[in-house]
């Protein structure tokens, strides 16, 4: 944990600090990435986890549209750019260690590339794995719509 994050532990509610200073103390991993959990702002439903680099985080904060970093494509991507299923940022919070981000979002349609509302649809139980939600949109149809 950085000295800044340690110092912020003792700060009172509603105290304000330099965004640049806080971002400089974010603990991106060795690849320059930070796990970002997207949660529906009004229901609390956890929608997905993806990776952000600093550029994705800054673009998200600047524009209010959620950007991630695609490890498979090695580039920045705006959620919904190919599916049309956008995420609009309501709030962003860094955890106490500075190594995980929680995004409160307004999700348009399904968040998952499978066409499901949430990426967390495979329930692991004592003796089996169960599909716990149906697709809202056929994945083949989802990616023909565009943004």
From TrEMBL:
Its EC number is 3.5.4.19. Pathway: Amino-acid biosynthesis; L-histidine biosynthesis; L-histidine from 5-phospho-alpha-D-ribose 1-diphosphate: step 3/9. Binds 1 zinc ion per subunit. Binds 1 Mg(2+) ion per subunit. Mg(2+) binds at residues 95, 97, 99. SUPFAM superfamilies: HisI-like. It catalyses: 1-(5-phospho-beta-D-ribosyl)-5'-AMP + H2O = 1-(5-phospho-beta-D-ribosyl)-5-[(5-phospho-beta-D-ribosylamino)methylideneamino]imidazole-4-carboxamide. Belongs to the PRA-CH family. This is Phosphoribosyl-AMP cyclohydrolase. The lineage of its organism: Bacteria, Pseudomonadati, Pseudomonadota, Gammaproteobacteria, Oceanospirillales. The gene is hisI.
């Amino acid at each position: 944990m950085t000295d800044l994050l340690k110092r912020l532990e003792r700060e009172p509610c509603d105290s304000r600090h330099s965004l640049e200073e806080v971002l400089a103390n974010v603990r991106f991993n060795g690849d320059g990435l930070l796990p970002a959990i997207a949660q529906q702002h009004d229901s609390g439903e956890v929608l997905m986890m993806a990776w952000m680099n600093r550029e994705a985080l800054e673009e998200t904060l600047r524009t209010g549209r959620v950007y991630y970093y695609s490890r498979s494509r090695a580039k920045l991507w705006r959620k919904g750019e190919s599916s049309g299923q956008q995420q609009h940022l309501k709030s962003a919070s860094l955890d106490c260690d500075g190594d995980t981000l929680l995004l409160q979002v307004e999700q348009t349609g399904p968040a998952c590339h499978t066409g499901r509302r949430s990426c967390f649809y495979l329930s692991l139980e004592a003796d089996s794995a169960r599909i716990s939600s149906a697709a809202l949109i056929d994945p083949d149809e989802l990616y023909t719509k565009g943004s």
